[in-house]
Amino acid sequence: MSDQQFSVVESSPILVDLLNQIRRMENERVDLLQVIASLRAERDEARREVCRNETNQLPTMADPHREAARRGWDCFKKEEQMAALDRIAQFDQENGLL
Fold this sequence. Notes:
Layout: H1 3-11, H2 13-57, H3 64-71, H4 80-94
């Protein structure tokens, strides 16, 4: 943004307010993405525990990965969602969106 454009924005309280609202919303989005990632990690850990306990109870189901697949869970999959959310947050930070 050029100096002239920036001064126009600064001189308009409505635009300044809107820009501040956008920044707050962007920060909230990043915070919510982190909460989602944390909840997913907690959920997946609980699912892994269920699968491990199930395999301990059923001698025919000796592999917790198979139990997770049987249930349709991907809790043993690498934390791809966490990595994606980290990349989004890093992009936002690098581009001054935070």
